[in-house]
Amino acid sequence: MAPRPSADPAPATANGDSHAARIGPHPGFISSSNQYSSEIKIRRMLKDNGCDPAREDNYRLQGVQLINNVRENLQLPVRTFDTACTYYHKFRLNFRDAEYSHQDAALASLFVACKVEDTIKKSKDILAAAYNVKNPEKTVAPDDKMFEAPGKIIIGLERFILETIGFDFRTRYPQKLLVKVVRRALGKSSANSRAFFATAYDMCIDMYKTFVPIKQTTLSMVMAVVELTARMRGEHLERVRDFAAGRRQYSRDAVMETMLDLLDLYVQHHKSTRIGARFDLGKFIDIKIRLNTDLDSTAKPRYLYHCHRCEVEEAHPLSSTTASATDPTTASNPWPADASIRRTARGQDGTMRFVFDPEAAKDEQETVGQFFKDEYEEYEVEVEEPVPPPDRDEAPRGRGGYRGGYRDRGDHRRGGPYGAHRGDRYHRGRGRYH
After folding, report:
1. Is residue 357 within 8 Å of residue 363, measured between CB atoms?
2. What is the pLDDT of residue 394?
3. pLDDT digits (tens, 9 = 90+) for 368-426
4. Do residues 257 and 304 make contact, with C-beta atoms less than 8 angstroms apart?
5. More reliable by pLDDT, 176 or 299
6. Residue 353: which H helix or E strand, with range?
7. The pTM is what?
8. What domains sit in the chain, N to C, each tagged with a CATH number?
9. Which portions of the sequence form the region Disordered (predicted)?
10. Kind and range of the H or E element at 354?
11. Using an 8 Å Cβ cutoff, are 67 and 117 in contact?
12. C-alpha distances out from residue 193 to 168, 187, 278, 405, Å
């Protein structure tokens, strides 16, 4: 199978000789950020990372709780908390647990979020706050020497987080929209609406302990929180439904998935949330059963964009399968690629470039890929190869240990294929004695 070059042959020189076409630099690798991820994609990335589901849930809850505790200690706004949790989830989806500590990843995510949200804090300030939260009886200052080595780790993880998010700093703040939705649906000055908003606000904080912020839009998250709060408190459910009916951007399927994700959190980790201690566990289970019954009656899937074939596939470690996902030489690459490819691309010849517009990145990849496409023509050629005769020294030994076959029982006419006994001659190809 001989390759046929897709490029035109090089022009001939004055002497009549042709020279090879000049090869330019490697075009590099393109990465485009993705604001949303489906449930099946998240599961595939966790499976490829080799994460244990129980350990992954504990690390996710502990990391988000650490971010919230440090944020409250430093008196940072809630938008910094939202951004830090989003970066933390994306970072953990692209790196194995064995490569980093989840506490370092959480603090590094908060460090980057402080810069993005213009609430700048030094790495030592964040480390000192985390230490003081854990040891309230023995507080230390940020300039303590014990934070020098951890500070370097935080700064080193900052680069990985920036590459993971693709330098795309867009995030969503559902708390801001939650205030407007509650006021519009329930009214402004009602005392009951204030208690309703307090419950919905805490539920919005608990929501960041799941993967909902990287799966759903802001309106889907807010409407799910408001409806689930109305179901938990047993009030204003009809007013919430009337408000949702007049919104074009409202997606019932996305809201159902978000509410079920929150109920999974409250049922499985009842004591690790803010709302879990306020309501009975049986109430969460009853609401979850009712929502699942509604899904079954409408024959709608539990998750959006679900693929059964992708769920049962074997795990593909990121170190061996993602190296060519952004390679322009591969014609059948999925687009856009996952952020984990940047780690493997860093060790290759090309340069990793981050493009914000996915359509522009796709067009550039298709244009560059034409110059790296190899076309082949397959043809068969029959070649006759002479078979050399075997060497006499390599003839097999018989039962008696002699070359040429049997020599026992006085049978001297049963020689080997090239043996000659008592003057008999054997001609190759004829197959008989004479």
Report:
1. no
2. 58
3. 878 777 778 888 888 888 888 887 765 555 555 545 444 444 444 444 454 444 444 44
4. yes
5. 176
6. strand 352-355
7. 0.73
8. 31-165 (1.10.472.10), 174-298 (1.10.472)
9. 1-32, 316-337, 378-434
10. strand 352-355
11. no
12. 36, 7, 17, 103
